Amino acid sequence: MTQYDQFSSDYHWLYSDRTLSCEPFLEQYGALLDAIPSDAKVLDCACGIGIQALTLARRGFSVQGTDLSPGMIARARERGREERMTLPPGGLSFTVSTWEALPRRFHHEFDVAFCVGNAIGHCRNRKDMCLSLSGIYHSLKRGGQVVIDSRNWEKVLAERVRLTILGIRIRNRIQSVPLYVWHFPSELEEGHLLIEIILIFKEAEQIYHRYYPFVYHPFRRETLCDCLREAGFTGIQSDFEREEDVYHITARKP
After folding, report:
1. What is the pLDDT of residues 231-241, one digit of tens each?
2. For 3-151+219-253, which CATH superfamily applies?
3. Which residues lie below 8 Å from residue 78, measured CB to CB, with a gap of 6+?
4. Which of 96, 132, 143, 240 has the greatest number of beta carbons closer than 10 A?
């Protein structure tokens, strides 16, 4: 069982309604999506509960969602079934897979691979990151593109903010406030970073909480770019800014 399996039923509470509708995703990647041929095959290789994969399928792409967590894949499939009548036939499927195993499942198959939601931060070390990116590389067709986003770990480690309180969410008459409690390693790329996610709920007159610990392995942007090159990618582009919380990287398979 992965750390996300038990969390899969509560995962949506981390996101605002606007994020669940994929508005920020479309704002960030709209131009890129407009440039992709309508018959493109798209991989969402950190699909979680399927939010982005469903959005991509609604645009008419043939979409394959993968995730390491069986619990997340089960939720994604459930969402897919709910919307099946509004999607193109055969345009969306989900399966459990690691990044390293992608070429054995989908060799040279995809035009674009998305690895978003800060998923790359789960790579345990530089070697693991390079192997994971190599798996994504070999799942792409020649000329295919990978799209990655990441938390700016350099900023996180410099500021060392211990508590993050997200906005209140109200769904099905239940209120929830997500909290992040951060535990930092002494240095960037040395050890892991623990984030304790605490979801506080109010349902009618009852107040309760659920707790989920998650481990990340912070890295420098240069490390990610180096691993992309080692995997074989070229044309690496990044919008990294030292003061921004998140950055995005694209690269191509020659």
Report:
1. 999 999 999 99
2. Vaccinia Virus protein VP39 (3.40.50.150)
3. none
4. 132
